[in-house]
């Protein structure tokens, strides 16, 4: 999956943002709070979660790692899909949701469109033991962010190739082919240049 997106904000709508990465515009579904933090032309790094369906690939973007983690945790409850999870984060912060679940506050959850009393009770029952206590989120350290960025280049290149029409198997081969170049870029603690690696992968596919 695509763990994060780094690039220039090319467009912001009421429900999504387009981030240009290596000449490719990736559309991210975001909450109003996240969208309010974005400015056209600004360089951003947004944690992302990819939702794969038979007919679509959808990227959701978040203001920070805690919001992303909460989005994915919420979907482990039966009846909560990506749209409802995003709606919950549009209405409440991650810590407010933790507090509501751990204190069995169904009223707070029913403030979210699409969640009734029974749905709120089910979410509380299923998530109470794994959603964490309020204030339990731990921000990622610079070292952790660097490791995540280094590990994510393959996912980004793969997604870019598939988005350009190559098959998943062809994308796999191309990613493997440029693995050595990525290792060289990160050998001295640097970050992989995803745009350059994508171009290199495209060259290997063109030669095949």
Automatic annotation (TrEMBL):
<keyword id="KW-0963">Cytoplasm</keyword>
<keyword id="KW-0234">DNA repair</keyword>
<comment type="function">
    <text>The RuvA-RuvB-RuvC complex processes Holliday junction (HJ) DNA during genetic recombination and DNA repair, while the RuvA-RuvB complex plays an important role in the rescue of blocked DNA replication forks via replication fork reversal (RFR). RuvA specifically binds to HJ cruciform DNA, conferring on it an open structure. The RuvB hexamer acts as an ATP-dependent pump, pulling dsDNA into and through the RuvAB complex. HJ branch migration allows RuvC to scan DNA until it finds its consensus sequence, where it cleaves and resolves the cruciform DNA.</text>
</comment>
<keyword id="KW-0233">DNA recombination</keyword>
<keyword id="KW-0238">DNA-binding</keyword>
<comment type="subunit">
    <text>Homotetramer. Forms an RuvA(8)-RuvB(12)-Holliday junction (HJ) complex. HJ DNA is sandwiched between 2 RuvA tetramers; dsDNA enters through RuvA and exits via RuvB. An RuvB hexamer assembles on each DNA strand where it exits the tetramer. Each RuvB hexamer is contacted by two RuvA subunits (via domain III) on 2 adjacent RuvB subunits; this complex drives branch migration. In the full resolvosome a probable DNA-RuvA(4)-RuvB(12)-RuvC(2) complex forms which resolves the HJ.</text>
</comment>
<dbReference type="Pfam" id="PF01330">
    <property type="entry name" value="RuvA_N"/>
</dbReference>
<keyword id="KW-0347">Helicase</keyword>
<feature type="domain" description="Helix-hairpin-helix DNA-binding motif class 1">
    <location>
        <begin position="72"/>
        <end position="91"/>
    </location>
</feature>
<dbReference type="Pfam" id="PF07499">
    <property type="entry name" value="RuvA_C"/>
</dbReference>
<comment type="similarity">
    <text>Belongs to the RuvA family.</text>
</comment>
<dbReference type="InterPro" id="IPR011114">
    <property type="entry name" value="RuvA_C"/>
</dbReference>
<dbReference type="GO" id="GO:0016787">
    <property type="term" value="F:hydrolase activity"/>
</dbReference>
<dbReference type="InterPro" id="IPR003583">
    <property type="entry name" value="Hlx-hairpin-Hlx_DNA-bd_motif"/>
</dbReference>
<feature type="region of interest" description="Domain III">
    <location>
        <begin position="151"/>
        <end position="208"/>
    </location>
</feature>
<dbReference type="InterPro" id="IPR036267">
    <property type="entry name" value="RuvA_C_sf"/>
</dbReference>
<dbReference type="InterPro" id="IPR012340">
    <property type="entry name" value="NA-bd_OB-fold"/>
</dbReference>
<dbReference type="GO" id="GO:0003678">
    <property type="term" value="F:DNA helicase activity"/>
</dbReference>
<keyword id="KW-0547">Nucleotide-binding</keyword>
<dbReference type="InterPro" id="IPR013849">
    <property type="entry name" value="DNA_helicase_Holl-junc_RuvA_I"/>
</dbReference>
<feature type="domain" description="Helix-hairpin-helix DNA-binding motif class 1">
    <location>
        <begin position="107"/>
        <end position="126"/>
    </location>
</feature>
<keyword id="KW-0067">ATP-binding</keyword>
<dbReference type="InterPro" id="IPR000085">
    <property type="entry name" value="RuvA"/>
</dbReference>
<keyword id="KW-0227">DNA damage</keyword>
<keyword id="KW-0378">Hydrolase</keyword>
<dbReference type="Pfam" id="PF14520">
    <property type="entry name" value="HHH_5"/>
</dbReference>
<dbReference type="InterPro" id="IPR010994">
    <property type="entry name" value="RuvA_2-like"/>
</dbReference>
<protein>
    <recommendedName>
        <fullName>Holliday junction branch migration complex subunit RuvA</fullName>
    </recommendedName>
</protein>
């Amino acid at each position: 999956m695509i763990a994060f997106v780094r690039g220039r904000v090319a467009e912001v709508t009421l429900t999504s943002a387009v981030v240009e990465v290596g000449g490719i515009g990736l559309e991210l579904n975001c909450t109003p709070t996240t969208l309010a933090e974005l400015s056209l032309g600004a360089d951003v790094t947004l944690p992302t979660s990819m939702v794969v369906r038979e007919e679509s690939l959808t990227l959701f973007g978040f203001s920070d790692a805690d919001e992303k983690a909460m989005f994915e945790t919420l979907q482990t409850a039966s009846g909560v899909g990506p749209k409802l999870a995003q709606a919950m984060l549009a209405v409440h912060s991650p810590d407010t949701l933790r507090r509501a679940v751990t204190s069995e506050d169904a009223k707070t959850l029913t403030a979210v469109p699409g969640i009734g009393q029974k749905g709120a009770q089910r979410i509380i029952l299923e998530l109470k033991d794994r959603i964490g206590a309020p204030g339990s989120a731990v921000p990622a350290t610079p070292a952790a962010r660097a490791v995540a960025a280094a590990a994510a280049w393959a996912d980004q290149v793969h997604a870019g190739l598939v988005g350009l029409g190559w098959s998943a198997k062809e994308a796999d081969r191309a990613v493997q082919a440029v693995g050595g170049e990525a290792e060289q870029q990160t050998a001295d603690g640097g970050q992989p240049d995803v745009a350059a690696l994508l171009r290199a992968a495209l060259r290997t596919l063109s030669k095949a």
